[in-house]
Amino acid sequence: MGVFERFFGLDEHDTDVRTEVLAGITTFLTMSYIVVVNPAILTAFPDDGVPGGIAIDGFTPGEVFQMLAVVTIVTSAIAMFVMAFYANRPFGLAPGLGLNAFFAITVIGVLGVPWETALAAIVVEGVVFIVLTAIGAREYVIKLFPEPVKFAVGTGLGLFLAIIGLQAMGIVVDDPATLVALGSIASNPVAILSVAGLFLTFVLYAARIRGAIVLGILTTTLVGWGLTAAGVFSRGVLTPESIPQAQYNIAPLAGAFVGGFGDVEAFSFALIVFTFFFVDFFDTAGTLVGVGQAGGFLDENGDFPDIDKPLMADAVGTTIGGMLGTSTVTTYIESATGVEEGGRTGLTALVIAVLFLASLVVVPLAAAIPQYASHIALVVVAVLLMRNVVDIQWDDFAHSVPAALTIIVMPFTYSIAYGIAAGIVSYPIVKTGQGEFDDVLVGQWLLAAAFIVYFVVRTSGILTSL
């Protein structure tokens, strides 16, 4: 215990081993759903109608699912070891929600990019992040981040996740007349059980029961299996058709990024990296600042001291993750739950990492969890992410416009990047319209210009035409 106290500086952070361990357990319980949800989003399920995802010849979706579960665990643990021993911050990291959907649905599904090439782009992005973090460039850009956009990113991301989750649960369906509509909930057993599981999870969370999200997912899954075992529904309705054998071999995924470098020519590949770069950069920045705000880590100017260290953990995690076979790693907003329990140092992150590794023993059970049950977590997290909206200065038009555009554009275009870009571009324009041109930094104009280029790349058809 004395070693931990000295290494992590517990006394100077006004904490102790017991508090840090409790904080780590709390954060693990609130974010451990990613072990199931990340592979659920990244795996290609031909029968669910959602484009994109990773499919490997010779392996069933269930086996790919388990490979991705292992990769998710290992990648998260590595990133958190860096967070613990280098950054000494109590933050949990894992492949980011929303970012994984962008990877699987937009890049692989819509753009038709091979998943190996998408992983290669993640690796390149991670290496670029390591370099930029080492020279302090990421910290500088984050300081240029307009405040209204910073506080709106979490809310917009929440709405984006809500649509994905509600669709998987059968609550929201597509409609040719209105784009989206309410599903046939009363006649759909998946939707009925999903709604029941969702509200059970809300009740558990409201009762401050640790691990409420995990308990909600597991309870919903057990009810689905129970109804199937009782003969109420046949296999394939509330449960997977079959459960594959345990699949710990991640060789088909690990190192696959190398082959991805040969699938596209340089310019189109650079545009893909550019797109990942912008999405990841600003999502990570917003999450770190948001969690830092919840933990009281920000100084009087709203800046995060030594933010380059947790950013390095994120960059290393992203690079390793791409090499092993998963999408971009980011800091989790659920880290705020451990911070609320008193976690203040890297010992909290170390505890989370160890618990993630311990969860490897239950990977074979992951494929037994149906997608509608795992996606309950997305809707719950979406609700939690709405909290940042109260920090926006809605009475200031130069704040309300960028914030509102960020929140609105993100879910309605099914793109995190579009939402962030809309907020960044609008901020200096509206500021100038208010006669506050002098308040806009040159760097913020440059960010806006860069995002205009981004909009051109993403909407002109350049990517799909190459």
TrEMBL record:
Pfam families per the UniProt record, alphabetical: Xan_ur_permease
GO MF term (any one): purine nucleobase transmembrane transporter activity
Keywords assigned: Cell membrane, Membrane, Transmembrane, Transmembrane helix, Transport
Subcellular location per the Swiss-Prot or TrEMBL entry: Cell membrane
Residue ranges of the TM segments: 21-45, 65-86, 93-112, 118-137, 149-173, 179-205, 212-233, 347-366, 372-390, 402-429, 441-457
Tree of life domain: Archaea
Cellular component per GO, a single term: plasma membrane
Record membrane topology: Multi-pass membrane protein
Family: Belongs to the nucleobase:cation symporter-2 (NCS2) (TC 2.A.40) family. Azg-like subfamily.
Protein name: Xanthine/uracil/vitamin C permease
Native source species: Halomicrobium mukohataei (strain ATCC 700874 / DSM 12286 / JCM 9738 / NCIMB 13541)
